[in-house]
Each structure stands twice: as C-alpha cells, then as structure tokens.
Amino acid sequence: MAIHCSRTCLQYLIHLAHDNVDFRLPEIRALLSLRGKPFDQGENFKEKSPFWRLNGLSEEDVNSIMARTVCAKSAFELWGHGRTHIELRTSLLKYPTENMSPFLQKDSTYKINVYTFNKTLEFEDRIKKIDAMEYLSFEGRVNLRNPKHIFCLLEDYGTDPNDIPDEPLYIYFGRWIADGQRELIRSHSVKNRHFIGNTSMDAGLSFIMANHARVKAYDLVYDPFVGTGSLLVACSHFGAYVCGTDIDYNTIHGIGKASRKNQKWRGPDENIRANLRQYGSEKLYVDVLVSDASKPIWRDGVLFDAIITDPPYGIRESTRRTGSQKDSVNSVKPSEDYVGDSHVPVSMAYHLSDIFTDLLNFSAHHLVIGGRLVYWLPIYRPEYCEEMVPLNACLRLVSNCEQTLSSHTSRRLITMEKIKEPEETDALAHLSDPHFSPYQGHNAFREKYFSGISKRTLTGKEETNKMATNGGE
Asked: Is pLDDT larger for residue 233 or for residue 458?
C-alpha cells in the first residue's frame, strides 16, 4: 500500500510454532532466499525462542514468507518491546509517529489481541493488559468482528512448562500482518487422504521439505522413492509439476492390500493421481513409474529443479533393488499380494549406504545448478556424528535437522544444493578423499533399531522383576 512507502526503520516479529523446532530456521532462510533476501535476525537472537525479530525486510517479504511457512504462526510489524511493561511503554513512545499514524486514523477500526506463550491468562487479565495501553493514541473505533487493523500484545513466559514465571520474560507489541499456513497441516492430513500407505509422510513435514527445497511454481520436482506420493502433494500445492518412481508395483498402481484399518484391499481409484485430484492439483501431475532407484532410466543432463524423497530404512518398508539370477542367493521373493506380470525380476537387498551414494550421485547429474536435494537420513543416535552425513563434490550441505524418533534413533532432514556440474576428476576425488566414502554403519540401522527396542523391552522386564522381588517398592 502507498502508506508504507515513506515509513522507515521497520522491524518485524515472527511468532513461531513450538513443534519441529529444529526445522524452523532452515525453512525461513529458504523462503527468504527465494526473494534474494538474507536472514538478518537482529540482536540477541535465540533460535529456540518462539519469537524472532527480523531486520532488513519489506512487508512484501514478510507476506511471501507467511504465504508458505508451516513453522510460523503469525507475523507482525514490531512497534515496541521490552523485558517489562514499563520498558515496553518506553519503547512504544519512542517508535516513530509517522510509522504509527497511518493505522491510528479516526476513520479506521481496530482491535487488540493478547497472545501468551507457555501461559494461559484469564479473560479479565487480558482486558486489564489491553486497558493499560491507553497511552497509545488510537483514534479509530474498536471493532472486534471485522477490524481494519489488528494489533497484538505478545508475552513470552519461557519454554519450560514446569517453571512458568509470574511475569513474562519478554513482551512485544505490533501490528498484525499475516498468519502462516498451519491450516495446511489439518487440511492435508493423511487421515483424510484418499490414498495412503504404511509410511505416508506427515503433511506438516511434507510441506517443510517442499519449503526447504524452495519448490516454486513451474518447477519440475522428482521423488525417486515416491510411495503414496505425499511429497508430490505438498510440492504441487506450491505450483510445481511432480513425478516419481518406486520399485513397488502395487503401490505405484494402487492395488493390493490396503493400509487403512478395517479395509482389506485398495479401492479402484486409490492411487497417487487421485491424491492430487483430491487437492485440486491433478493438472500438475506428470506421472509415476515402476522403477529401481539403483538403475539409470533417465537420459543424461539436468532434468529437475528439486529432488525430494524419503528413502526406505528397512523398518516398515524393505530396502531392495532389482538384480540378476547370478545374485539370486541374496534375492527377496515378491510380496504375497503382488499382482503384476508373471515375470518377476530378482529382488536383492539395497544397502542404505548404497541408497544414499546413488541418490547424491543422481542429484549431482540431474539437478539444475542451484537446485536442491532434500531427503531423510536415519540415524542411530549413540553413534551419530556429522561425518556420517553423505557428501558429494557437486552438492553443498545447506542444513541438517533432527527429528527424534526414540531414545536411540532419529532421522535427520538433509538439504543440499547443487553448486557445480560433475567432472571426471570428481570420481577420483571421491575415491581418494575419505569424506566422500559411504558410511557403512548406515547398513546396520535396522539391526540397531530393533536391538534398541529389545533392550527397552528387557529393561522393562528387569524392572518388573526387580519390583516383584522387592515387594513392589
């Protein structure tokens, strides 16, 4: 709006959701980079805080972030802040009048909301806090249903629910600009999705992956372990054309046993295309193919703007690839409900270290420069170190975020960006540099995962036996 043009020294406040905390900073940075803007966090930045102050942005920049983020709840133009209400008042009275005045006119309507983090206030207490801000020269009329401008008082009571202070640790006041896209988590929930599988990706994480990959309209996005297409649904929401492959014939064709409770077989229209149709993005569906990720089927050259995937870990979905009769000693029989052609290729174990090596190598050859690879890396936590993250000379590591699965396992969301085209010397570098060698410990993730469960079960039994021995004390 024209009234924004002459306003100066603006700072913005983002109120973040307190789930998926590790993923928030890479998401906001990725969305800012789509507009060519750096992440300028201001003074005293705390990554785990539910409130971030950002500098050097326009209101259009902030709106572009909020139009996509699922990690942020709301954004505000910050007018004042302080550790106490007295400091807040001093800060607000110093805020430039020319920045405030366009929103305080007599012909405008407004309301003030009170948001608290980690504490619930009674309605009467909220009203008292609003009344205490009478020193601000609001000249318009209060309209609670449909105000022209919304202002917010935000109080931070820390992040420890077991130690909530009587008074807030920090207070902010500002003009509301926009809400984030948290509603997408509900509207795209896999509970309501037409076609799902045992490992369908959570809607919130799918959108986070799409944002980390900087997926945008008219991009071509590929998932080499597509499954039931949850990641394609998220990417198509942002206007990208989507395609994928998977070795599982039944999943790609939407046939065989169902994953839903109280449903034995999949219906006639349970497939990935139907999922995109459900959300109005079928026109962005390119296709999906039955294919082995370890075997090249694509022509040489760059093809994709982003590659986003969740490889199988061997827990609920097997890690397998096609082989030959010579390798049949280690072959795997097709599933009982396989309904494909009579000829079934020999199926072999596909080690996790080989999956990640092939994935990075494929991305180095088929991503555009600046294109991103986003994938999940399963980790046995007691042994984890950063050297376990696979590397490639053509890909720069952008972010590495952890989602804890249990006391001993987690998976890390790895984001990499292509910085150069492959060269013949890269192959030699990969052989000579130990940093590029596949970490073989990934191959034992399944055994370590289940050994951890066994240990917990045994520990539980030992505790039970101990309590029985000690008379239940």
From this structure: 233
Helices 203-212 and 230-237: crossing angle in degrees, nearest 10, is 60
C-alpha 197, offset from chain centre: 20
Q: Give the E-state strand segments of 291-330 in sequence order.
A: 304-309, 320-322
Q: What is the tens place of the pLDDT at every residue in 136-195?
A: 989 899 999 999 999 999 999 999 999 999 999 999 999 999 999 999 999 999 999 998
Name the strands in the sheet holding 285-290, side by side, starting at the edge strand that comes first in the sequence: 285-290, 241-246, 220-223, 304-309, 367-380, 409-418, 395-404
Structure tokens that stand for 459 in this block: 């520990």
Strands 409-418 and 395-404: antiparallel
Give the model's pLDDT for residue 463. 45
pLDDT at 287 over 90: yes
Helix, strand, coil: what percent of the chain each, to 5?
35, 25, 40
For residue 392, the 8-state DSSP code is B
The SS3 of residue 38 is coil
List b or e across 342-371, with b for residues whose CB sees 16 or more CB atoms inside 10 angstroms.
Answer: eeeebbbbbbbbbbbbbbbbbbbbbbeeeb
Residue 52 pairs in a beta bridge with 14
pLDDT at 345 over 70: no
d(CA 74, CA 52) in angstroms, rounded, equals 11
Structure token digits, residue 451? 């050994």
Please spell the DSSP secondary structure of 69-129, one letter per residue: -SSEEEEEEEEEEESSHHHHHHHHHHS-HHHHGGGS-TT-EEEEEEEEES----HHHHHHH
